[in-house]
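Hi support team,

I've been running sequence recovery on a batch of backbones for a student project. Most finish fine, but this one hangs at about 90% for roughly twenty minutes before it completes. I'm not sure whether the input is malformed or the queue is just slow. I've pasted the structure tokens below so you can try to reproduce it. Let me know if you need the job ID as well.

Thanks,
M.K.
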């Protein structure tokens, strides 16, 4: 049984690393792509609203004080 288990155990050991290597590289590539997309998306998403909010805040703050001064 030990010899059979060893013989039976060898093919999965040979096959598993290949599948795991493929899965690991695929997961790594997918993770890298997802992280890149998330980083780019967050960068642009944060950049755009911040600019809009800053402009609207500057406009609102610059508009409000003159009204209160008047």
């Amino acid at each position: 049984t030990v010899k059979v288990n060893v013989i039976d155990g060898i093919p999965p050991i040979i096959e598993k690393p290949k599948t795991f290597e493929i899965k690991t590289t695929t997961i790594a590539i997918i993770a890298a792509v997802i992280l890149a997309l998330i980083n780019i998306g967050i960068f642009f998403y944060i950049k755009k609203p911040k600019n809009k909010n800053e402009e609207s805040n500057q406009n609102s703050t610059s508009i409000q004080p003159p009204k209160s001064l008047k």
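--
Follow-up from support: It reproduced on our side and the slowdown came from queue contention, not your input. Residues 1-70 form one domain. No action needed from you.
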